[in-house]
Design brief:
Helices cover 78% and strands 0% of the residues. The chain has 144 residues and is an all-alpha fold.
């Protein structure tokens, strides 16, 4: 965690000089998420979203932090907002909505969103393969 701590310190110094630096806020939040410090990540992301409501990377990261914190409803809200903010890339939201559905044990809903992801996402990526595999697992254990 030494490198993370150093990155946090550097980013916080930058934010003291430039408190509205959106990229620094996003980077700070990402580091906190990687360290499992979801509340600190949420604080940075909420600041960023006050500066730029609807910022897609901030919404995605905040939804991830919410999921990590067990705040599934808030994560779902952010993924729904993301769907509205980035209609040309809906797969960014579909994968999150599928994860939310899985957390809620709503398997059929998760399957629906994984299918939507596969219909709209770029093919031949690691994420696409992972989602395809996960969809197959869910379908195999779910009655029609």
């Amino acid at each position: 965690t030494g490198r993370f701590d150093e990155a946090i310190q550097t980013t916080e110094q930058l934010l003291k000089r430039h408190p509205a630096n959106k990229l620094a806020l996003l980077n700070l939040a990402s580091i906190h998420i990687q360290m499992g410090q979801n509340e600190k990540a949420l604080a940075a992301l909420n600041r960023l979203l006050q500066l730029e409501p609807g910022n897609p990377p901030a919404l995605m990261n905040r939804a991830a932090a919410y999921i990590n914190s067990g705040r599934i409803y808030e994560a779902q809200q952010d993924y729904q907002s993301l769907l509205e903010q980035v209609p040309e890339r809906p797969y960014m939201a579909y994968i999150g909505l599928a994860e939310v559905a899985e957390k809620r044990n709503e398997t059929k809903e998760a399957i629906k969103y994984y299918k939507l992801y596969l219909e709209t996402a770029p093919k031949q990526t690691e994420e696409y393969l992972r989602v395809s595999t996960r969809l197959g697992e869910l379908q195999n254990r779910t009655p029609p």
